[in-house]
Design a protein that fits this description.
Strand order of the largest sheet: 12-11-10-9-13-14-15
Distance between the termini: 57 Å
Length: 416
């Protein structure tokens, strides 16, 4: 009976209500629809600075539609809100229903501040790709009007999320244009398919050096050993992907021979923690995520962060110690890019998590394998080569920006 012709007295009416928001508006209006046994086909509501915007599409019959609109009009007057009625044809409604099966995407804009220009540039690309914006919501709290950059700049953040529908004319071209405008306009942008996996991520793995902490621990150790310049040069070449990570690691560790192990304790106590780590970890743990550190750095510092922030797993490289001093050698297999990807998959198996439900965050070339393997790979304040290869990146705010890519709103999470 799905091809049944609609009854001639069937009417579809869209009402749009706007005005000052107050408790009871939605209840009062829908009560009138209920009184006449009207069927609500669609409903949406937003509150912007205490101003209500409510839309309801309902089905009724021509016998009672006039009475419904009259009662709604009087009630709107009593509530001091404006109401507009728009008839919707059966063909228009059927066309709308057919569009429900189209692909859905989430586009996240993130930065210290977002301007009308940012929104306009992204919206223009969305329109050119033949996509339709279904909803826009702000994930961060309302920004203050005062600009006290001396005390609050490092905490400032803004995030807007677009929900769009359709199939991009050229997804790769759309992704490339997003990356270009984000770089030119100094904000971050993420494009994700809005599927079941995005809504139920369960495991998130982080690089450590230059990701969770704003330093490379091996460089710190090298400075104490008096070989800082030599090690720093090798580190930079390795992170840019110019030389093999394992070979560079072996060379750098060899230069640390004879360094007293007590030096590591002093460095650990003064590690420069990346902005937002504490807040992010509190939210992830409360939400039930499993977390891991997968680092090409050293277990001594990884264990320190694991204890401090409550990570569930930690894998890194262990330095060999004899008589209280570093021998210039390491123990076991090097945790390089390949090993990081293997560990991500292994932890996912242990936790019974589909690989599509995993997230990886890192900054260097040796993080690319795990960023590619994860369901969501995020390049964080990354080297140019890594940003070019990763589909998602954060370069403008702290690492708690990851929370917005996962759909968290400030109103749902407490500040730490």
């Amino acid at each position: 009976m799905s091809n049944q012709i609609p009854q001639p007295n069937l009417e579809l009416i869209l009402i749009n209500i706007s005005g000052q928001d107050r408790p009871g508006v939605t209840a009062a209006l829908t009560a009138i629809l209920a009184k006449y046994d009207a069927t609500v086909l669609d409903i949406g509501q937003a509150d912007i600075h205490h101003t209500l915007s409510l839309g309801i599409l309902f089905r009724t019959t021509s016998e009672v539609s006039g009475e419904i609109m009259k009662d709604l009009l009087f009630k709107a007057y009593d509530l001091q809100v404006k109401i507009r009625f728009t008839p919707i044809s059966i063909s228009e409604y059927n066309s709308w229903v057919k569009r429900q099966g189209k692909n859905r995407w989430i586009i996240t804009l993130l930065g210290r501040q977002l301007t009308a220009r940012h929104i306009a540039l992204v919206s223009e690309i969305v329109a050119e790709q033949g996509l339709n914006i279904d909803a826009i919501q702000r994930l961060t709290g309302r920004p203050p009007l005062t600009d006290d950059s001396t005390s609050t700049e490092h905490q400032a953040k803004a995030c807007i999320e677009f929900s769009v529908r359709g199939t991009p004319a050229d997804r790769e071209e759309m992704q490339s244009r997003f990356i270009r405008i984000a770089a030119d306009e100094d904000f971050d942008i993420s494009l994700q398919e809005d599927n079941m996996y995005r809504r139920c991520r369960r495991l998130i793995c982080f690089d450590m050096d230059s990701t969770l902490i704003q330093t490379e621990c091996i460089d710190q150790l090298a400075q104490c050993a008096g070989v800082g310049d030599k090690v720093c040069e090798i580190t930079e070449r390795a992170m840019r992907g110019e030389i093999d990570f394992t070979e560079s690691f072996r060379e750098r560790v060899g230069l640390l021979k004879g360094l007293d192990v007590s030096v590591m304790e002093g460095i650990a106590e003064h590690l420069p923690i990346t902005e937002g780590v504490g807040r992010m970890m509190e939210v992830l743990k409360r939400a039930g995520y499993k977390t891991a550190i997968l680092s090409g750095g050293f277990t001594f510092f990884g264990d320190y962060l694991k204890r401090k922030f409550g990570f569930d797993y930690m894998y890194a490289n262990e330095l060999e110690v004899k008589d209280g001093k570093l021998t210039g050698r390491y123990v076991g297999e090097v945790v390089d890019g390949r090993r990081k990807a293997e560990l991500l998959k292994l932890i996912a198996q242990v936790e019974n998590v589909d690989i599509a439900q995993t997230i990886a965050v890192g900054d260097g070339a040796n993080d690319l394998p795990m960023l590619s393997a994860a369901g969501l790979g995020i390049a964080f304040h990354a080297k140019p080569k890594v940003k070019e290869s990763a589909r998602q990146s954060i370069s403008t705010i702290g690492i708690d920006g990851v929370l917005y890519f996962l759909g968290f709103k400030d109103s749902y999470i407490s500040e730490t």
